[in-house]
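Hi Y.,

Following your request, here is the sequence exactly as I used it, all 476 residues.
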Amino acid sequence: MKEVARDCRLLPDEWGLALVAGQYKYPLPQAIDRIYAVYYIDSDNTHNRLSYMAEDNYLASMDPTEVQSEPFYYSYPPYVPPVFEFYVSAPPVYDYVSASYVTTESIRTIIDSGASFGRTRSGKRIRPGCVVNNISDDSFGYVQYLDMTTAKTSGTATSGTTTDTLEDTGENFSTDDVEVGDIVCTPSTGEVLAYAFVIEVGTDSFRYADIEGEDANGERINRFADGDTYKVGKATEVRLWFGRPVPEGTRVAHAGWNHPGLRQGTSNIFAVSATKATITGTTFTNTTVTGSSTSGTEEDDIAIASGGSHALISGVDDNELTVDKWIGGLPSAAETVTVVEADQYSIEDRFATERQIWIGPPSEAAAEGDENILLSGYRKPRMPQEDDDPLEIPEHYEQPLIACSKWQVADLLGYITPAEVLSYENIYRQEVRKYGSDVDRPPSNRPISPWRNRRTAVRYGRRNQTPNGLTWDVDI
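Below is the corresponding structure, written out as tokens. Let me know if you'd prefer a different format.
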């Protein structure tokens, strides 16, 4: 289906995305099969077509991080590791972000009081071995485990604990405010040996999934058991490996796998400066904090509220700061705000599974709610899920679809000779060539009905009608 849809250009469509100031990497919508053209829509609603560059030329010819007033080039590389978008509940529209700022200085640890690393937009888990990028100093490390600054509750698993459920008859997890997206760690104190993700909350038990970690002997921990101590809460910390990730089943101390954690001889510190200003008597909106003197504050500093939420400062007045968004939620009135400089970070998966489009970073973001990049191309066909599901490809493409299927099956069987596979492919290519101009006219081997070719406002645009008004395969 995908081959036929691609070769016959059957499913044209458009997609939009919003540019972010200073960002040049964007995930492509999953439905896109091929891109035909990319347009930048300026403030006058003019559609300016961008020029395509192969990814190696794109990187060699320009600095992709260099800010410009509007983009001129784009590229889309092979599959790359996706950058996680983790939950931060930042009003009004930013529930997830791909980069944030540390709120406490620490060695080999991200501490972000506004983040919840157990919940991501894609649903994929942040696992051991994922890459942590310190954007501020261009260093990186690897996830060892997730942790929490403050547990919502802790205890000891009781006899009802199973391979996917943790029970503690002495707890009420609902009143403890345990929620989906929290993490559970074992043991309850000290270094975490394993962590899992809460997926359903009951009264004295909750279900978990995807436990990760190793015991003191380097053996993989599979599940929680009766008698294990635990703690559960919002994942606000990411601990890094002392060494690089080891292969599955290999002990941590395996020779040859030592690694400093971060490159270029850095000290593995995620840095936060001394306090530059303290603001009291505060009131907040989604993009401001008003209070006592803001003296000492500069743009691009970080405002951290005493409740844990924080924001990037974009404007400074005598008694008011303008910020981009409050990561962690809108602070409550009267929370104290401290102003600091802090390292920025992002977390990316260890596997290359995402298609991206690269667009030169603009100096300004799209207006809230607007999409200023238009992707024109072709979408993937909807694949049938059941035997009686209709195919998205129209019925008059039955012959090339059958020919393509024979070619693909012959290629996958393994015992068909290369010459025979090539023969099947040639048969498909010859068949599909008859349909190659369907975007402009009906297939050359299909009769045109002379009785139904009157072009009217009512009938023009039918499924089997061309721009000049001709129709084919239309029932009486």
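Residues 2-80+356-379 form one domain.

Thanks again,
Q.
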